[in-house]
Structures are given as C-alpha cells and as structure tokens.
Amino acid sequence: MEGKSRREAEIILNQKSSFPIHASPEKVRHLNEHEVLVQFCMDQELVQILEEFKNLQGFELKNQSYLEVFKKMGRFALKELKKKKGIQSSSSSPKSTPPAELNQVPNLTKFNPNSRYISKPLKTLLWQRQDGKCAYTDPKTHTKCGSRYALQVEHIEPFALGGLTAPENLELLCPAHNQLRATQRYGEEKMRKYVG
Ligand SMILES: [Zn+2]
Predict the structure, then answer these.
(1) Strands 27-30, 170-173: pairing kind
(2) Disulfide engineering: 147 pairs with which of 35, 115, 174, 181, CB 3.0-4.6 Å?
(3) Distance, CA 160 to ligand 1 centroid (Å)?
(4) Ion ligand 1, residues whose Cβ is below 5 A away
(5) Domain boundaries, the chain
(6) Does 26 score more than 50 pLDDT?
(7) Residue 134 C-alpha to ligand 1 middle, in angstroms?
(8) For 150, phi and psi rounded to 5 degrees?
(9) Across-strand partners of 39?
C-alpha cells in the first residue's frame, strides 16, 4: 500500500476482500428529537459535487465534516431558491440561523450595559464575532465546540454579580455548554461562600 492515498488503499482492500462491501439501501433512524442518522452510499456524481463545492469554498470548508459541508450546501441552495421564488428568508428561519438583520451594521448605541436585556443589535454583533458558533473551548484540548445548534447569548461574568451586558462580557453558547458554564459557576459561588 506504499505510496497510496488512504482512499486508494481502501478501494484496493475492499476489492481484494473475500466479502467486498457493496452499497446498501439508505437507512434512516430517528435518534432523538433533534438528530436523524442517515446512512447511504454516495455515488460518484455526489462525491464530485461535494469535492467541487469544498474546493470553491476554500479554507472555510477545509477539514470540515460531511455534516458541515451538507449544511453549507443546503443553506446556499435554499437561499438561492428562495431568492428565485421571491420568498424572504427571514420568515421561516429555524433556531440556529443568524438573525435577519445580520447583514446590517449593528447599531451599538441601542444597548444598555446596565440592563440584563440583550438587544437584537447586540445579538447580531456576537453572531458576527463568533461566526454563529458556540464559543466554548475545551481547557484541556483547546478544541472549540463550534456547534451552531440553538445558540444562546450568555453573560460571562453573571449579570447578578455585576457583569455588564456588553460585547466583551457576552458569548454565544450551545445548550450543553451553557449548562456546563452554569454548573461551573454554581460551584464557584459555593466556594466563594467558604472562602469569603
Ligand atoms: Zn458548545
């Protein structure tokens, strides 16, 4: 297998195997409320489409999972289709699509750092800053979560403890990491009682 790419090596191994793997029919399993496991064989045409799309997108999709590539393709196709059919894309945006006013420059005079309320321009600003992804970074591995699912804006220093509602004290987190932060904070507060 020397000098062969992983792809070439896999093909050769599959051909040599006494039980070569053949494409099975599509399988669809609903794992939970939000996730569906779909198993199917990509034919040559789809492989080529994906490769071409990834290449044209450049670094943005380099080393990204198929999930991210399909999502990007889907969003792109949907946007084009809606434009063609004259449908405004803001009308049916699911949870994790950016706010409709994303393309406008956020009006920063509209937020009050002493109010808990997080205004739309502020949300837009955070969305742009984090590219619509969860900001959580694993302290050990330094890997970013990057989830785009159901993101929530959270205060880093809690508002109740004097944290301001300002871009530098806010971040977008996915539900799992929002929960994790809350648990960590609860632990810290408990510790404060003993120390202080
Ligand atoms: Zn996350």
Answers:
(1) unpaired
(2) 174
(3) 23
(4) 134, 136, 145, 147, 174, 177
(5) 21-85, 100-195
(6) yes
(7) 5
(8) 45, 50
(9) 27
